[in-house]
Design brief:
single chain, alpha/beta, 13 helices, 11% strand
Length: 335
């Protein structure tokens, strides 16, 4: 099972770890004897809700990021978050450079809890990508830290070139993550294995219903052009049979918080007004001048605009959230 153990510890957390964790023996939480002593820690509330579906209400699930006002790309973890991670019996993160703060927390806390890295269960995960690299391996390679730095964007976030890390918008990936969660829970709490497997099967059926809804869109609208200000909904767009016509330079610049080159912006605005774009999807948690310009251009051209978020909206389950997104796409396209 893929796991992630990281790499570099942020100085602030490294400095506080000695004080925050002083007096705690060992590097991991004790093995739980029952579900009410078991804790799952996830990077965001997206994976928190998914984990709760499989684990059931008797198990405590604690997301680090719980609000749409918190951007995982810019999130700064606290000493309290490090203590939370240390107490985990199972950790779930997105990976792929999306929630790198989790790797810092895992390394800084000394946790030895199993880690499920969702990105590594994606069909698009680059073969041979070092998702399981640990500190010892870094020490053996004199160039590892340098290479790691070169893989970071201007904000210091690590990304894997060519890989869309927003894998929770891909139901195939979430199916695989669901199976991994059930397997890990069953290994640690074998007396409840039947319950975990039943919950996973029920949740997988819901994921398959989402895929059926996407297939309906594909039947009606295959090949129609969609402009996305960021790659967030990329996997859903692909599953719906729609074509992402966004210039890659545009969406990459917006995602990394950089200025869109003027020529690229002009190309994007002309594209939106050309009639080839049937829908524009923006990230509701990331705004900028270029994004606003594309939304305005879509309004002028009569192109429907949707906003998708990166974290779970309040009072919705993962399935409800995804189904709403799918229904919004179908409605915008005239299905």
């Amino acid at each position: 099972m893929p796991k992630s153990r990281l790499l570099l510890v942020a100085p602030a957390l490294a400095a506080v770890s000695v004080l925050a964790l002083a007096g705690c023996a060992g590097g991991a939480s004790a093995s739980p004897s029952s579900s009410d002593e078991f804790t799952i820690v996830t990077s965001t509330n997206v994976y928190g809700q998914i984990a709760q579906e499989i684990a059931g209400d008797a198990i405590t699930v604690t997301p680090i990021i719980t609000s749409n006002s918190q951007d995982p790309h810019e999130f700064e973890a606290s000493p309290a978050d490090q203590i939370t991670v240390r107490a985990a019996n199972l950790i779930i993160e997105n990976g792929g450079g999306y929630d790198a703060f989790m790797d810092t927390l895992i390394s800084g806390s000394g946790s030895e809890a199993p880690v499920i890295v969702a990105a590594e269960y994606s069909h698009a995960w680059p073969e041979g990508e070092a998702g399981d690299t640990d500190t010892e391996a870094l020490e053996e390679s004199p160039h590892s830290e340098e290479d790691h730095a070169e893989a970071q964007d201007a904000d210091g976030h690590s990304h894997i070139e060519g890989f869309n890390e927003h894998v929770w918008y891909d139901q195939d990936t979430i199916k695989n993550v669901t199976a991994a969660i059930a397997q890990e829970l069953s290994a640690q709490l074998p007396d409840q294995a039947d319950t975990f497997e039943a919950n996973a099967a029920a949740f997988t059926e819901k994921l398959e219903a989402l895929q059926s809804s996407l297939a309906d869109i594909k039947t009606a609208h295959a090949g129609e052009g969609v402009f996305v200000t960021e790659p967030v909904p990329g996997y859903m767009i692909e599953a719906a049979g729609l074509e992402n016509v966004t210039p890659s330079e545009f969406s990459e610049a917006v995602e990394e918080g950089q200025d869109v080159p003027p020529a690229t912006l002009l190309t994007a605005l002309n594209l939106i007004g050309s009639g080839d774009v049937k829908l524009l999807i923006a990230n509701s948690q990331a705004a900028g001048a270029e994004t606003t310009q594309t939304i305005d251009a879509a309004g002028t051209a009569g192109v429907p605009v949707l906003e998708f978020s990166e974290t779970l909206p309040d009072d919705q389950t993962y399935v409800q959230w995804m189904q709403q997104n799918i229904e919004d796409i179908a409605t915008a396209l005239g299905s």
